[in-house]
Sequence to fold (416 residues):
Amino acid sequence: MRDKAVRVLEQNWTGRSTVPSRSLYPHQWSWDSAFIAIGLRNVSVGRAQTELESLLQAQWPDGRIPHIAFSPDVPRDAYFPGPDFWQARLANGTESSGIVQPPIHALAAWLTHQADPAESTRQGFLQRVYPGLVAWHGYLRDRRTLGGGGLVAIVHPWESGMDNSPAWDRALARVTPAPAGSFTRRDTDHAADADRPTDLDYGRYVQLAATYRDHGYDDRETPHGFAVEDPCFNALLICSEHALAEIATTLGQDPAPHLRYAAELTDALVGRLFTDGMFRACDLVSGDLIPSETVAGLIPLVVPGLPVADVLLETALGPRFRLGETRLVPSYDLTADDFDPGRYWRGPSWFNTAWLIHRGLVQLDQTAHADALRADLQALAEATDFAEYVDPFTGEAHGARSFSWTAALALDLCRP
Ligand code: 2M8
Fold:
């Protein structure tokens, strides 16, 4: 499995970074690159560093790390929405999207350093990436604390990384979709229609992105039709603030501001989003907590020192997610009427969320659960030829194959 995973990462390596999938996603994606670096550190620390540093080449002057850095080497219409849609070009010539993805990058940088601290220190890796990572979190804190309660908000479903999650249905229904004939999807050229979002939802994604673009991606000016505090996004920000504290200490700088922000965010996360044993997203337009239970609500298991970890673990083990009885961790409540084991983020299991929950279980000393999840992740990665996601009951492969983060994270769990 290890050799096959390394081969997938080599096939998808472009020389500076790794595409998630040669067919479906032919550019550099933000949180994919962070997960990929976490895997690559086990093969080549230098490549893991390059993966993260090439992503930082796409960082905007306001600090945001865009969700896609476009490759100049693939046709401009290979992926929709491509560079001509987003119309965002940096002074260094890099073209990117204008939205973001979950901030797991500082954690990835810290784990990359830890794979070979002496070599990383010799190369000055942390010194080079620390300022960009601080600026990234600064953007989120200063421009995205839209709800006033301390948590950061996402302004597009794609920013959650869980694009088609049922949790977004009600908020998305308020958005008038872009007319069907005004854009051409590319994703359905490469993946089964039944696995992907519907045309109606796609029209809404396009409309939200176009509105943001037409307001210069300015968070103060844009009338955000979708604004949500997502538990996964905020949990990863907390983990990354803890990682920044470690990085600051290693560099001889003061970790206290990072630890303070991590503690404030943790209080806000529990205070605002935790109810009935589960974290839920908060819809800032309606002001309501979104009732849907999705895997995003379990990701806070990875937050160091989470005060409600025991209760949350019970929820993961309970009838809605059946941790240990299903393959990996389903993306949506198994008992919900609209649960769908095959459609994008509406039921199937993903490898990145399983890796995060595995990390949480290890931190909580839940060794038996952690070992079982690790074995399942590795076996499924190999059996499905490193699929993008799988059916949580049968383990059947869906979406792309030779998918980079699947290979990277299976590889990472081979660590002793
Ligand atoms: C999926 O998202 C893209 C848009 O960003 C898409 O559906 O076209 C998601 O699974 C996301 O989490 C992931 O980063 C991306 C690339 O793997 O694909």
Observations:
- The longest helix spans residues 231-250.
- The radius of gyration is 20 Å.
- The pocket of 2M8 is lined by residues 20, 25, 29, 31-32, 67, 158, 161, 163, 187 (CB under 6 Å).
